[in-house]
Amino acid sequence: MKEYKIDSVIDCVPAISEVLVNVVIEFEEKDYELEIKLRMIYQNEKGEYLVLGQKNGEWKFMESFFFHKIESLM
Length: 74
What we know:
single chain; mainly beta; four-stranded antiparallel sheet; 12% helix; elongated
């Protein structure tokens, strides 16, 4: 990834937020610019969803939601 910029963060429900990011990726000496939506989930260490602000939670991103966007470039 050459560069990125966070454009927005939208709270969909108390445990899920979507982050809109513009990225520039270099692949085979060519630059690709893409807008990617990352879906973030607030959960505890057991993987249980928590409401934002509850103790012992952390944000994790849904990997499959992200990587299918990158693969569509190639």
